[in-house]
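Q: A small favour: would you put together sequence and structure tokens for a protein?
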Amino acid sequence: MPQEQYTHHRSTMPSSEGPQVYKVGIYGWRKRCLYFFVLLLMILILVNLAMTIWILKVMNFTIDGMGNLRITDKGLKLEGDSEFLQPLYAKEIQSRPGNALYFKSARNVTVNILNDQTKVLTQLITGPKAVEAYGKKFEVKTVSGKLLFSADNNEVVVGAERLRVLGAEGTVFPKSIETPNVRADPFKELRLESPTRSLVMEAPKGVEINAEAGNMEATCRTELRLESKDGEIKLDAAKIQLPRLPHGSYTPTGTRQKVFEICVCANGRLFLSQAGAGSTCQINTSVCL
């Protein structure tokens, strides 16, 4: 430390002694402590600077951003996997051209659409057990805009040209179904079945059942009724067989032949009676009881 000497002269009082010298500065243990703290401060500054440079290097800080995060003219760009611990608010999220966009979560992924009052209007929840969608209406469309599927409180619409059900047990409708056409796949059977209740087919202009390359069967446990209120029932075929009609009682008189006539009872029941020279239906009226 520089030392300064101050000489005080007393002009009013003469003195026989020489001038007195006073030393100004820091000496001894105070000086050593000051040097120690200055050296320690310099070491801390160097360590802090080294740590800052190391963090910048590890986090890959650049002018454009840090790490996998880049700041571009269009917004933020993330490269690689990214993890958000808090809610993410963004106007648009898109992947890089040619790459897919993945959302991964340990529990579920929830997408909410809010209004100005932060009230949820539409919500999509994808979880480990189910995919749930909440909204006024749900629609699935093609790239060209054609409606494939829609659902709301009033109805469910399937806009595809063909609805295929691949389940082994078929399709179960607990109530009515309205469709213009019910058709099976080529070379497959079509079965309309009601195991415990009745099966009703109604149409204001008629019901048409076609089996162009096979047989058509109608099977029931008790009664099969064909009823026409204002028209007629026509059986148009090259051969009509009624193999299980009851037979009337046979009388041994006359010669036995394999010709029968169809008889109709008052209650509408049909039965076969062995033909004779005249009608034998009156003889076998016991079948109508």
Summary: The two ends are 143 Å apart (CA to CA). The longest strand covers residues 120-126. The chain has one helix and eleven strands. The longest helix spans residues 29-58.
